[in-house]
Specification:
The protein is an alpha/beta fold. It folds into two domains: 111 residues, Beta Barrel (Elongation Factor Tu (Ef-tu), domain 3); 158 residues, Rossmann fold (3-Layer(aba) Sandwich). The protein has eight helices and 16 strands. The strands form four sheets. It has a seven-stranded mixed β-sheet, with helices on both faces. A four-stranded antiparallel β-sheet has the order 1-2-6-5. A three-stranded antiparallel β-sheet has the order 4-3-7. The longest helix is centred in the middle third of the chain and has 13 residues. The two termini are 31 Å apart. It binds flavin-adenine dinucleotide, FE2/S2 (inorganic) cluster and magnesium ion. Magnesium ion binds next to α2. Flavin-adenine dinucleotide binds next to β4, β6, α2, α3 and α8.
């Protein structure tokens, strides 16, 4: 169980792995995630199920290297097993025929957006995808997104590929030319989701965002993933991860995500010196 059957680097610092997990592959619905531990002494981290193959009994995970556990995962090879994998967790995306759905994905956010886009298209929506990254090399899943979208617009912040600008500018462009948008789904870094919501709020477009608060148990018991939506406390793991973007308190989310920055950095520095850590290429540093 939980054996890595495929693994590849899809962009600098971003990896994709196919994992043998038949029960999760059968039960998973778009919008859901898993919580894993890489090894016995590892911590629990949530990752979205980016794709699944129920027949083969596999799920696909895509992760960006940001700290100890995601770097550790990058050192794991085909044939190695994850210690444990819990899921599918979270409330699935509400999918129905809305009309025109615009999906906005920034950076690693394109991975969770992909199964939702696929589901929205299968439900008969006209799907317009806006996929963006800082620079061309960091764009992920553009071909996969193209296959499940009616229209796709790709942008880079530095203009190295596609439209030169932020995903929010591309979205504003669609609105300005009179595209009737019935729903917007935005997934990416918190500042990006906040910026999308500022655009859609002004245009009165219902907007769903997928939040990434710190999670521990993933089942609504520990309270680590508390977020505030419409003035009420919600648990990201069971009430979400998707919420009405127009109601989210992004300031609180940003503060809570940075709560453990100090200990995370200490742990990463220790990991750099370990045997596994020596296999990683850390940005700006020696391997
Ligand atoms: P650390 O150095 O420990 O942490 C780096 C930052 O990641 C922290 O400052 C904090 O903001 C966040 N973080 C740390 N621990 C957790 C935790 N237990 N839960 C949530 N956030 C944490 N990332 C992807 O690359 N791909 C995905 O598909 C993906 N899906 C996610 C789905 C959900 C529902 C959530 C909540 C998060 C998702 N993330 C995803 C983010 C991912 O969980 C974090 O990047 C990861 O936990 C970082 O762990 P680390 O030890 O490598 O880094
Ligand atoms: Fe513990 Fe949500 S992660 S309550
Ligand atoms: Mg960590």
């Amino acid at each position: 169980m939980f054996e890595i059957v495929e693994k590849e680097r899809i962009a600098p610092g971003v990896n994709r792995a196919v994992i043998n997990a038949p029960a999760i592959a059968r039960a998973h619905k778009p919008g859901q995630f898993i919580i894993l531990r890489t090894h016995e002494n590892g911590e629990r981290i949530p990752l979205t199920v980016a794709d699944k193959d129920a027949e083969k009994g596999t799920i696909t995970l895509i992760w960006q290297e940001v700290g100890v556990t995601t770097y550790y995962m990058s050192t794991m090879n085909v044939g190695e097993r994850l210690q444990d994998l819990c899921g599918p967790l979270g409330t699935p995306t509400h999918i129905e025929k809305f009309g025109t759905v615009v999906g906005v994905g920034g950076g690693i956010g394109v991975a969770p957006l992909y199964p939702i886009t696929k589901g929205m298209r299968e439900a008969g929506n006209h799907v317009i995808s806006i996929v963006g990254a800082r620079t061309e090399g960091l764009l992920i899943l553009t071909e996969e997104m193209r296959k499940v979208s009616d229209e796709i617009l790709i942008s880079t912040d530095d203009g190295s590929f596609g439209i030169h600008g932020f995903v929010t500018q591309v979205l504003q462009g669609l609105i300005d030319k009179g595209t009737k948008i019935d729903l917007c789904v935005a997934i990416g870094p918190v500042p990006m989701m906040r910026a999308v919501v500022n655009v859609t709020r002004a245009a009165n477009i219902p907007t769903v965002v997928s939040l990434n608060p710190i999670m521990v148990d993933g089942t609504g018991m520990c309270g680590a993933c508390r977020v505030e939506v419409g003035g009420k406390t919600k648990f990201g793991c069971v009430d979400g991860p998707e919420f009405d973007g127009l109601q989210v308190d992004f300031d609180l989310l940003t503060k809570r995500l940075a709560m453990y920055k100090g200990p995370e950095l200490i742990a990463l520095n220790k990991f750099r010196e370990s045997e596994r850590g020596c296999q990683c290429k850390f940005p700006g540093g020696a391997a």
